[in-house]
Amino acid sequence: MMILVTGATGSIGRPLVRRLRQQNQPFRALVRTPERGRDLDCEVVVGDFDDPASIETALAGIEQVFLCSPGAEPTPGQQPMIAQQTTVIDAAVRAGVRRIVKISVLGARPGGLLAEGAHAEIEARLEASGLDWTIVRPSGFMQNFLTGAGAFTSGGDLIGAYGQGRVSYIDCVDIAACAAVLLGDDLGNRQRFVLTGPEALTHTEIADTLSEAVGRTISYIDRPPAEFADNLTAQGLPASFAADVASLYEGVANGSAAEITSVVGDLTGRSATTFADFLARERELLRQWPPQHYR
């Protein structure tokens, strides 16, 4: 049962590759350049979501696809991601792939804001493709606080517009563990799984936990959503995009990201990783704070 892992060098893809190797599961990893795949220690194939011919080649002999877009900056409408994932879905149909396990997002829904609406559109296209499918909807990634996707001041304080809203951040290693189970055992056909961490924390609590891990005081600075939107428009982003971001922040402040599920434990047989345990595991990356990309 050959699997193609897309997004193989990302925060979910790398731990998934490790798990599939450990399980002796036949798979190949899609990478954009040979250099990016050298440290994966597995079969790789070079391809790009923007190059349909390369995706056709990568899908030869594949039965299942793990579909996860490469990391990218948020864009108004998320149109590039829609086009790219649709390219993979359409190519999979032509190649005779049986099933796609897709990484989506918590809150995906038709008409949703930014990635929520984009992933819902891709989900609908996948459902209509005739392929078997499984959709995984994770909450926000704990890794965002280490990779630069989180928002910090130049001094290393956490900044946002979430009020005291709680977020059930999840460790990407847990997402990968669930994906490996779903791919390996062919579970969850035509089902959606909402993955979260085991706790829903305010960003003030997150800052406190970061302070303990780093050994210095990190504060959470809260700003009104409209102020964040104004900052985005001042940077040249469209006003409609900034307004959507502000609405997302307001939703989080009102509890839209606070859901906690038991799915990680149900699928893997072990508890989801707490934020404190995640930071303890990644302590080498915390030795200098803030990380270089925040400076």
TrEMBL record:
Q: What's its top-level EC category?
A: oxidoreductase
Domain (NAD(P)-binding): residue spans on this chain: 7-158
Output one GO MF annotation.
Answer: NAD(P)H dehydrogenase (quinone) activity
EC id: 1.6.5.2
Q: Which domain of life is it from?
A: Bacteria
One Pfam family assigned to this protein is NAD_binding_10
Q: Which SUPFAM superfamilies match?
A: NAD(P)-binding Rossmann-fold domains
Instruction: Keywords in alphabetical order, please.
Output: Oxidoreductase
This one is known as SDR family oxidoreductase
